[in-house]
Design a protein that fits this description.
- The complex is a heterodimer.
- By secondary structure, chain A is mostly beta strands.
- Chain A has no helices and eleven strands.
- In chain A, β4 and β5 form a beta hairpin.
- Chain A is globular, with a radius of gyration of 13 Å.
- Chain B is globular, with a radius of gyration of 14 Å.
- The chains are: A mainly beta, B mainly beta.
């Protein structure tokens, strides 16, 4: 199975900061990657698919980039409602695998 | 309103069985791939299984192969996960999700755009 490694595992930032989360695949996955936001007690939410396509309704401060093995999720200006854990998920082959998550705190 | 509602979770002894259900509303269920994702206590998300629109294709994570079976009933707009030979490590919140399967640049992608609220499964004696 393809392993997805996120970094950092957690980060602390201030409101308005630019935040960058990286996800590295153990092998080539083209651009078959999505990003999800997960808040405690709630269902995960789709942010980005196909590495860089913003899901409808998601604020434009979220963006994704990358292809091959290295990917990035960027929050251009961190807001209080962005406090959550973020996960990458590849869909290049089966089984799909998530990264271990990045917890974003203020 | 687009909605997925899971049910069927609970406490079960190791080696036991449980059947999770996920009822869809507000969209044409038969048009979509569907997925199960779980989160064990204190752990991250784990993709468990998915199923094609006509149930002709099903895929599983290795740790549940031979024990879990994903299925669907379009007449009832429902997705199921039959879980047998349950282990302590299957303890988790189980979410169902709709895959909108966007088509971009000649390729299909996964995009889990609608999720249920989750149902808790506890495997313990």
């Amino acid at each position: 199975a393809i392993q997805m490694t996120q970094s950092p595992s957690s980060l602390s930032a201030s409101i308005g900061d630019r935040v960058t989360i990286t996800c590295r695949a153990s092998q080539y996955i083209r651009n078959d990657l999505a990003w999800y936001q997960h808040k405690p007690g709630k269902a995960p939410e789709l942010l980005i698919y196909a590495a860089s396509t913003l899901q409808s309704g998601v604020p434009s401060r979220f963006s994704g980039s990358g292809s091959g093995t290295d990917f990035t999720l960027t929050i251009s200006s961190l807001q209080s409602e962005d406090i959550a854990t973020y996960y990458c998920l590849h869909d290049y082959s089966y089984p799909r695998t998530f990264g271990q998550g990045t917890k974003v705190e203020i | 309103e687009l909605q997925l509602v899971e049910s069927g979770g609970g406490l079960v002894q190791p080696g036991g069985s449980l059947r999770l259900s996920c009822e869809a509303s507000g969209f044409t269920f038969s048009n979509y791939w569907m997925t199960w994702v779980r989160q064990a206590p204190g752990k991250g998300l784990e993709w468990v299984a998915n199923i094609k629109q006509d149930a002709s294709e099903k895929y599983y994570v290795d740790s549940v192969k031979g024990r879990f079976t994903i299925s669907r009933d379009s007449a009832k707009s429902s997705l199921y996960l039959q879980m047998n030979s349950l282990r302590a490590e299957d303890t988790a919140i189980y979410y169902c999700a709709r895959d909108s399967s966007p088509h971009l640049g000649g390729s299909w992608f996964d995009a889990f755009d609608i999720w249920g609220q989750g149902t808790r499964v506890t495997v313990s004696s």
